[in-house]
Amino acid sequence: MSVLVYVENAEGKFKKSIFEVVSYSAAIAEQLKTDLIAISIGNVSQADLSSLGKYGAAKVLNVSNDKLKSFVNQAYASIIAEAAKKEGSTLVVFSNTFSAKGLAPRVAVKLKAGLADSAVELPEIDNDKFLIKKTAFSGKAFATVELVSPVKVITLNPNSYQLKESGSAGKVEDFTPEFKESDFRAMITEIVRASDKIALPDAELVVSAGRGMKGPENWGMIEELASVLGAATACSKPVSDAGWRPHEEHVGQTGIAVSPNLYIAIGISGAIQHLAGVSSSKTIVVINKDPEAPFFKVADYGIVGDAFEVVPKLIEAIKAYKSNS
After folding, report:
1. Which domain does 288 fall in, by range?
2. Hey, which end of the chain has fewer CB within 10 Å, N or C?
3. Could you give the CA distance from residue 286 to residue 264 in angstroms, rounded to a whole number?
4. Same domain for 292 and 171?
5. How does pLDDT run across 68-97, given as a tens digit for each residue?
6. Are residue 265 and residue 319 in the same domain, yes or no?
7. Which range, of 19-28, 58-67, 182-191, averages the lowest pLDDT?
8. How far apart are CA 75 and CA 179, in angstroms?
9. Residue 189 within a domain
10. pLDDT of residue 193
């Protein structure tokens, strides 16, 4: 028996959400009194693979093959399922990334496993029964899922579990699975990444703005606020639809769902579709001159005021605080 965690990489590097899911999986493995095994697919350095041991991985299975340099959903799922069978894993864990949303269900089917996605806490374990708290209804509520199958699959929402260093360098072992040509019928030919920006799904701080900014020419203050905070920038759907900001910044039910530690909404009224994609944020701050804006009903902190007056003062205050710290 063991716990297996899939450690996704972006161009050979692990993001913070991966260290979170390794820490989370290590805590479950400790509860089960078993070992945590990580599996990495793609070209990652031995040093980076070994570093997973610091977060609790006793062993790291390294799958390196030219055919797998780019993400191939069906092939990756087959490899992870094969690794789980080889290691006798009764639990497979993923970070709830865009890729994992396709991988986890496929792996669950291959292993005849129960699946709980979007977990936000460690499960309550009673013998073979897992009770897992997860987000539901696009993040507007929580649900508790009961898994009783012999093999289980869980995906963990980013920013839901703190990093915990609990070990030393992990043992890296090459793993060479058998490939099926049928797994490569659908291939990704190109991935374009916005490398100069903080990725929204992984961001701990997000500064977002809407039509209250009146036009794209006024976005300088939003980018400056994000810069001084070390935050990612985002926008509402009408803003991206109007071409003021790129579509990859659109957050909401029809865009990217985020769960940062801090979400600042500037000039966004708070339509239900937008709230559905950001309601998992730990702290929400709203700046809007309309005191009746729906966003204030879910905000932890609200400022009723003109963004063109409030934001520059906020930037100035943050810079002053940093210079005195």
Report:
1. 200-324
2. C
3. 6
4. no
5. 888 888 999 999 999 999 999 999 999 998
6. yes
7. 182-191
8. 7
9. no
10. 62
**Whats the size of the chain, residue-wise?**
325
CA–CA gap between residue 167 and residue 53 (Å, rounded): 6
Tens of pLDDT, residues 218-228: 999 999 999 99
Handedness of CA 304, 308, 311, 317 (dihedral sign): negative
305-322: per-residue pLDDT in tens?
999 999 999 999 999 999
Task: Take residue 248 and report the two structure tokens written for it.
Answer: 């990859």
Tokens coding 274: 């937008």
Residue-wise burial string across 103-113, b where 16 or more C-beta atoms lie within 10 A, e elsewhere: bbbbbbebbeb
Tokens of 39: 């599996």
Q: Provide the number of structural domains found in the chain.
A: 2
Distance, in Å, from the CA atom of 16 to the CA atom of 26, rounded to the nearest integer, reads 15
Helices marked H in 88-219: 98-111
263: domain CATH number is 3.40.50.1220
Mark whether 33 and 149 lie in a shared domain.
yes
Same-domain pairing of 267 and 319? yes
* Residue 92 in domain: yes
| End-to-end Cα distance, the chain | 49
Residues 147, 129: Cα–Cα separation, whole Å = 6
Please say if the pLDDT value at position 12 is more than 80: yes
Both structure tokens of 281: 């944020």
The dihedral through the CA atoms of 226, 229, 208, 311 has a sign that is negative
pTM across the whole model: 0.78
Banded model confidence at residue 239, pLDDT cuts 50, 70, 90: very high
